[in-house]
Amino acid sequence: LSSSAALEGKGQLKFTSGRWSPHHNCTQIATANDTTVRGWDTRSMRQIYCIENAHGQLVRDLDFNPNKQYYLASCGDDCKVKFWDTRNVTEPVKTLEEHSHWVWNVRYNHSHDQLILTGSSDSRVILSNMVSISSEPFGHMVDDDDLSDQEDQHQEEKIKEPLQDSVIATYEEHEDSVYAVEWSSADPWLFASLSYDGRLVINRVPRALKYHILL
């Protein structure tokens, strides 16, 4: 054991989840206990932020945006997924309310942080496109010199279009609570889900969205 920290408070305070931040030279970790999310500096084991009542009920899971160092996602028994900027934790940056029961898992895609995966006790897996709070809210940058006049006009029209955060797909192959979802570490378009129905289901990001992101 290299270092430790203890929570102070009434009753039995239990951690329900923890997540290393891939940023800040891996010196920060986020933990969830009851309805609160806390950030810790592992060098001093001091608390660096605290999101009290992050969720109305138990916080189930956390995940850091792999490309935006201050962005953290949380989910819980209030059926919500919330996105936080840890520099200002008074209000979530965005909230998703697509599930109808406890949300067990939330996972950012490792390569394309606009893609968010969630699993819930409503037996569904939801794939969302949170483009407005991603590291590429305006899509891939295109060099003006590479565009013809027609392409340039088309590009301007695309830029004028409002950003759309949306649910891409809802997967209902499971017959019981989905307690784990995870992206493939080898293929950014592949993901798996586990359920109390005893099945592992593997799905792909829809091809049309894949090419939309890449092109």
Q: Mean of residue pLDDT?
A: 86
CATH topology: Methylamine Dehydrogenase, Chain H
* Proportion in helices: under 10%
Instruction: State the low-pLDDT regions, or none.
Output: 141-148, 155-162
Q: What is the terminal separation in angstroms?
A: 47 Å
- List the domain count as a whole number: 1
Query: What general form does the structure show?
Result: globular
Order of helices and strands: EEEEEEEEEEEHEEEEH
CATH architectural grouping: 7 Propeller
Largest sheet: 4 strands, antiparallel
Structural class based on helices, strands and sheet pairing: mainly beta
Strand order of the largest sheet: 1-2-3-4
CATH secondary-structure class: Mainly Beta
Alpha carbon gyration radius:
19 Å
Q: Helix count?
A: 2
Let me know the CATH homologous superfamily: YVTN repeat-like/Quinoprotein amine dehydrogenase
User: How much of the sequence is in beta strands?
Assistant: 35-45%
Using brief descriptors, characterize the structure shown.
215 residues, 9% helix, mainly beta, WD repeat, EIPR1, 4-stranded antiparallel β-sheet, Methylamine Dehydrogenase, Chain H, 15 strands, 2 helices
Describe this structure in words.
This protein has 215 residues and is mostly beta strands. The chain has a single domain, classed as YVTN repeat-like/Quinoprotein amine dehydrogenase (Methylamine Dehydrogenase, Chain H), CATH 2.130.10.10. The protein contains two helices and 15 strands. Strands 1-2-3-4 form a four-stranded antiparallel beta sheet, with no helix packed on it. The protein is globular. It starts with 16 loop residues before the first strand and ends with a helix. Residues 141-148 and 155-162 have low confidence and may be disordered.
